[in-house]
Fold:
Amino acid sequence: MSLSRRNLFQDKTRLALSVGGVALAVMLILVLNGFLDGLNRQITLYLDRSPGSIIVAQDGVNNLLGATSLLPSGIEYKVDSLRGVEDVAPILSQFVILDLHDKKQPAYLVGYEPGKGGGPWEISSGRQPKRDREVVFDRILAGRHRMRIGDTFELMGKDFTIVGLSNGTTSWMTSFFFMRKKAAEDLFSAPQATSFLLVTLYKVVETGEVLNRLNDLSGVNALTKKEMAINDLKLFADIFSAPLKLMVGIAFLVGTMIVGMVIYTATVERQREYGVLKAIGAANRVLYQVVTVQALLAALAGAVIGVVMAYGVSQGIMAARPQFLIVFDPSDVEKALLAGLGMALVAALFPARVVAGLAPAEVFRR
Amino acid sequence: MMRLAFRNLFQNKIRLAISVGGVALALLLILSLDAIFTGVEQRLTVYINQSGADVFVSQSGVRNMHMASSSLPASVEKKVKAVPGIEAVTPILYISNMVVTGDERNLAYIIGLPEKAVLGRPGKVTIGRDQPKDGEAIIDRDIADKSGIALGDIVEILGEDFEVVGLSEETTSLVNSVAFISLADFEVLRGSPQVISFLLVKVSAGEDPNAVAKRIEARVRDVTAQTRDAFAGQERQVIKDMSTDLITIMNLIGFLIGLAVMALTVYTATLSRRAEYGVLKAIGAHNSHLYRAVLAQALLSVAIGYGLGLGFTLLLSEMIPLTGISLTLIVSGASMIKVSGVSLVIAAVSAVLPIKQIAGLDPAMVFRGK
Structure:
């Protein structure tokens, strides 16, 4: 152990570079995972905060964000009159592309009826829309484009005025903004159209029974908000997981190579000492332990610093770009430390080979 | 000095492999992310580019297809047809929805095509037909392969069953694919018969698409007309604007990792050759000569790392489609130039530490055996 520590600490700059390299790799893994976790939370924002426990969509539609839904006309009244249903909030929603200051900004437009719900859950300033050309805009999106209450922007050939700013309605991909449902119907040339119904049940009612009754209605698909959130998460996780895994894999390899190189160099430099140890009877197993402990110390120190750095960097990213949400679960930190451990074990293979191939007699020939 | 750099670099093969490999991986991080987004940009515009249309007409103010909605009264078709300089007009309906195959749900642009559509059909259909009739669908071949779907099988679109009659190529991206059904089916399922989404326009021979687009906007109210290139450019812009921040962050991380690997390698290589540098100093070599050797060593490593990183990325771009993942990687010239610049900076900065070390080296140390 003391030999490992001495070898490792003999050159401080090299140690600092190696620990720094591992820290960077671990930080990258953590930030990427945290980014995906944050993205997942942002994906289900609307479902988490909007009223009701059941969503009624068009038949065949299982997602809120992935698919466009158009319910049969008159369905709101049928649902409202069903036993067990306390309240129904109809919304007309659709992704749109906003052209803000020569930047394309995808946004999710929600047309809602202010008296029934489904609109912004927290207005930080301003008010709800009272007229058709008024909107409540996401506060962070507005801030990014230096837009304030009273400013106007163009959407699909029509001018809209911001009358309120909402909190908790942003994401990296897209932000939510809200207008009256009637205004959305005009915008999409779809009079009386409804995308989804947000259904609130009486407290004493069995959700499964009401779901069955809703699904007996023609042309609709009713599911709990939880189910829909899972569907949306799965859809977007499928999209983002492949590139993310690629990045995490690269980060892991880089970390491993850095630790490997440092321990390898340290071992090669101490080749004679290892030879002497072998010559006086030290088994290969002991020498493997020495290099493995070195690798473990460097990798674990890097991993711990990487965790701290990831926290700092993510705070910096979120302060500079508030549309990003980076979330760390304790399990992510555990995974990062395990990744550090994995890096150390794989990295120890390079110097272990050097030690294994060392001839004790070599020492005495020099 | 170049020879010294070369020798120092290649003297220890394992260290060389690790350093070059580390830099290659860091650059791969930057190159592959760029390639992913370039791939998405390219695939997202495939339908537009292969549609055969010179001009796209949409609802006023709608300049995109991706994540957008356009609704035009069906009567606009006649008005556009009456504009001089137009050879053909095809209306299409469009919505973002799912192609459901068993348990698999794949996000897709659903295009409703009229019978005998002149424009807007899938560009490459290698198996089956390129024009769906009622009750039929054309889906992307990668999606079909992934779900084990063949011609004659049933898929669910907009809540209805459709028989697959054609498989199209290059119509899938990381985000979604494109599926085609008949306009009549689309109208029934969406319940909006007198509305279309886009008009695809082919201009007459000798006509300038730009001039025709302007003419359409001047003569038909409440529409936006864009040439194919402009429309595709708007689509690419969505991806660019969405990914800029993310790419900047990842590039910075890639740069730092590359820098850490390189700095470590050049530093350890210089350290192990400390005595030799001392001898060179003792026999009269100037510091500037030794600096050049260190810099050349860093540049060589980075250059090899860059070549390897690029090679890995190109290899990945070939391998990934074989795995069935809907991910297209395209390495662009701009990305290669950017990463070359990053590599140069990495080489220059990583040489700073060893240069400092050489500068402080006392030639007399060599003779003292240190």
